[in-house]
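I hope you will forgive my troubling you with a question about protein structure. The record follows directly beneath this note:
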Amino acid sequence: MDDDTKKILHKVANTIRALTMDAIQKANSGHPGLPMGCAEIGAYLYGHLLRQNPKNPQWWNRDRFLLSAGHGSMLLYSCLHLSGYDISLDDIKDFRQLNSRTPGHPEAPETVGVEATSGPLGQGVGSAVGQALGLKMLAARFNTPVHTLFDSKVYCLAGDGCIMEGISSEASSLAGHLGLDNLVLIYDSNNICLDGPLSEACTEDTIARYKAYGWDVYEVDGHNFDEIHEAFSKISKEQTRPTMVVAHTVIGKGAPHKAGTHKVHGAPLGDDEIKAAKELLGLPEEPFFVPQAVKGFFESKLKQDRELEDHWCGTFEAWKVANGDRWQECEAMVEKQLPANLESKLKELQIASPVAGRKASHAVIGYLGDGLPQLIGGSADLSGSDLTMMKQWPVVSSSDFSGRNIKFGVREFAMGAMATGLSQTGMFTPFVGTFLVFSDYMRNAIRLAAMQKRQVIYQFTHDSIFLGEDGPTHQPVEQLASLRAIPNLHVIRPADTHEVRQAWLAALNYEGPTALILSRQSLPDIDGTDVAYKDGVGRGAYIVKREKERLDYTLMATGSELSLAMDVAQELQRHGKGVRVVSMPCWELFEQQDFEYKKSVLGDDIGKCVSIEAGVELGWHKWVGKDGVVIALESFGASAPAKCLAEEFGFTVDAILERIL
């Protein structure tokens, strides 16, 4: 790297430090340590290395940068502003304020240029691995010997906290197994945690660990542009495996009294320290100052960025002409096109009944795989049990990324974050599977997917105590309530084959994440569920059995308990009672309905409302009212056959009649 380039990049790095100090001080909140310590890394990435066009942030073949250590968000915001993304100096001044485009931790898609919402440490690593895998899969589908559409890289900056979190181990292990040669993890190794020196909490050999995963590892002085450039130049030309760059840095570099200590990690520096830092760095005291030389440098680079994308666009147009069929598939994936007759085709799909919810879903997945090229799936070592495998397609491997099935191994948390990353490519609709009880391992990844409204479908099977003999360690009890508590997540528990078909329609038509909750045991088809999507699951709740005259009881149920509710209704009728049965597969969709529809389904409080669901009662009182009855679980399950468990926990017709009559 020539001296002139190094000189301007030094100016960029110090400008990043200045913007960081000023924004955090103005907000009286934030984390200056990482942005100041990684300022050279940020300057090099956005000033030299990354192939991006800030004026077209969604360019398909852009290099992607993810900040897993999201607390250091001012590094990213400074780089985005300086390099020409739609982040103004006023946005920088508005750091951490209400409705700002520069929130405390990066949020996608609210802030342009942010590739993934990050902050919970390690999840950015999981998302980066997912994005890198997705780009490899896109390259396998669409690159040809003549035209290369996808050859970009994913860069992720992680700190000590990210490296210590278990999700980064899971994701990095799988990245090494798959040989993702388009993934670069930059480890900001400053030996400081929020609480104090890293040595007080962690003394492992991280480099040896990553080499054991099958990664290449480089070490550089994170403040030396020659060393940084040498390492990244070699990676750009010779990378054959996922690669870690260990950047040894000084946290808060430039702060004369706090640099290198945990005091600079997560608190404003203070006016006196900022004044001293700017004097040490040769910066003007003027807050939010950006030198003209830095502005001019990035204006020049922006022209190069546009030329780079223009060249790619020429390749793309030539590829379209030569590959018409592939272009149609590509366009369908980008636009997430669904066939106009999908509902009728799914209705024609033959699924024998009674059948387990997981098996019915497997039949639907097999059909959808043929018609929806954007659909890809995987499982946490349970594809034979949660039935997520699309048998007509191969499994993705390090030697073949053309498959559409991913074996995530027993790595549920990483699977959840990677699924979000796969969705973030903009061209895939991923579904991933495991047992419902293990959704707890994935919960924070599901939460971030919901926050970003990414279309990810979770196939959670073995959905209640009725999975039987595996016992309470594997029997979900509180998980339904837990998932329903997550904003933007649609939780759908279908009762039979008709509702399973409609549940998939709901998931594919929703732009955010959906959890499909499916039974291990066989369930019968139910009279009243064979209705149009717009009158059934699409409403969230609907009447499957109406009272004949007066209304004495309204029975509400989901999943496997809907058939039980139908049996209870039959017995109540023999007692001369008027009974309505309501299927409530998706509370979130029902919440979206207008008042009149809700009233027409639940009645006018004339009948006693009874809910029946093999999970905790939390949430059901909203629907049954203060005088209603909730048939639920008040404890963990037990190891026994399903029939014995039904009797033990009160999920039989006689037990329910005793509760409500």
Remarks:
- DSSP finds 26 helices and 20 strands in the chain.
- The first helix runs from residue 3 to 27.
- The chain has a mean pLDDT of 97.
